[in-house]
Amino acid sequence: MTRHLAPVAVDAMGGDHAPGAIVQGAIDAARKGHPVTLVGPEGVMREELARRHATRSLPIEVQHATEVIDFHDHPGQAMRRKKDNSIRVCFDLVAEGKACAMISAGNSGAVMAGAIFVLGRPKGVERPAIVSVLPGLKGLPLLLDMGANVDCKPIHLVQFGLMGELYSRRVLGVARPSVAILSNGEEEAKGTDLTRAAAGALRGAAIDFRGYCEGRDLLTGDFDVIVTDGFTGNVALKTMEGTAKVIGEHLKRAIRSSLVSSVGGLLAKKALEAMKKRMDWREIGGAPLLGVNGVGFISHGRSDALAIENAIRRAREAARTHFVDELATAVAPAEALLALAQEN
Questions:
Q1: Counting CB atoms within 10 angstroms of each CB, which of 2, 127, 189, 192 has the fewest?
Q2: What is d(CA 279, CA 324) in angstroms, rounded to the nearest whole number?
Q3: Tell me, what's the pLDDT at 272?
Q4: Is residue 97, in this structure, part of any structural domain at all?
Q5: Is 242 in contact with 234 (CB distance < 8 Å)?
Q6: Which residues pair with 212 in a beta bridge?
Q7: How many whole angstroms separate alpha carbon 146 and alpha carbon 172?
Q8: Angle between helices 269-279 and 259-267 (to 10 degrees)
Q9: Together in a domain, 140 and 277
Q10: Same-domain check for residues 104 and 158
Q11: How is residue 324 annotated by DSSP?
Q12: Could you tell me if residue 330 is inside a domain?
């Protein structure tokens, strides 16, 4: 079924390790049957491909783009000034149906600006959101928004919940996703005016809304979709990344502390490697954008070949479901839900 999809457009110039790691990730994905279109200066792309062996028979195309948006560029201004940038060209390919999805490890603000500018939003969607798939103890919990919307209104959180529920159900295959709002306690009286208004509306939605989720429950997997504003979501994600890094370092030091610990570490090597893989952000590959007329993934700026390969695979999986076609229907009840909650 996937062979009938258009290729994934890959911004080969985005990220700390571009273009080398990006091109290698695209090659690795292509070798596993995922067609890609590398976007960037054609000479650079051809040179990178020539450095690697046996790539001529792979489903890899090259699309020329003359400009690159750097991390220090202002997203909106750069998108207007550099009209032939690699991010913009990726979105153009999606809009024209020449790519089923796009991914970039470049300037995330520019990716968001490009998505809105080129693809536009489905009817009724107030703001797109960035979604992070968390390494939960069970399932694949979603956390959104991850930084696109620092200042939110209740309507935004309500729509994030409805869009996240759709993505979890249609793309991740969760039969009836449970939805919650991140807060400082489980009681209805907790939270802020923003979270209480959004929670009141979502209680009336035709979804499995569970109320509030506390920070300690982010990784349990007890909630499939966790909703918050972009400021809180970004802080939560970076805190989890930092905590995982510190725990890993403490574990290494403990194992190296004595001969007995080292032997124990060797005996537990397979289990430790499995845990490391589960917690590795590279296994997720990228964060999907929800709320635009197409599939776009933002990969970490430090993405290596493994992260890009996984982002390409996940982007194709998302595109195959055509979930974007249902976004307008998903968010349609949001305003009525808020109005009803305010009356009550």
A1: 189
A2: 28
A3: 60
A4: yes
A5: no
A6: 181
A7: 18
A8: 70
A9: yes
A10: no
A11: G
A12: no
Per-residue pLDDT of the chain (344 residues; tens, 9 = 90+): 344 789 999 999 988 898 999 999 999 999 999 999 999 999 999 998 988 777 888 999 999 999 988 888 887 888 888 889 999 999 999 999 999 999 999 988 899 999 999 999 999 999 999 999 888 888 889 999 888 888 999 999 999 999 999 999 999 999 999 999 999 988 888 889 999 999 999 999 999 999 999 999 998 999 999 999 999 988 988 888 787 778 778 777 877 888 777 777 676 667 666 666 666 666 777 899 999 999 999 998 888 999 999 999 999 999 999 999 999 999 999 999 988 888 77
How many Cα atoms are found within 13 Å in the side-chain-facing hemisphere of 32?
12
Q: What secondary structure, in 3-state letters, does 117-130 show?
A: HHHCCCCCCCCCEE
219 and 154 share one domain: yes
Alpha carbons 133 and 288: distance in angstroms, whole number: 9
Place of tokens 């992070």: 132
State how many domains the chain has. Answer: 2
Range(s) of the domain holding residue 37: 1-125+291-322
Structure tokens at 88: 């913009």
Let me know if 221 is exposed, middle or buried by CB neighbors in 10 A (0-12, 13-18, 19+).
middle
Name the residue among 151, 143, 147 with its Cα closest to residue 194.
151
Phi and psi at 141, nearest 5°, equal: -60, 145
Residue 37: strand pairing partners: 9, 61
Give the closest residue to 225 by CA, choosing from 176, 170, 180, 166. Answer: 180
Residues 137 and 257 in one domain: yes
Q: Which two tokens stand for residue 178?
A: 């449970």
In this structure, the answer to whether residues 119 and 180 fall within a common structural domain is no
Are residues 85 and 64 in contact, defined by beta-carbon separation less than 8 angstroms? no
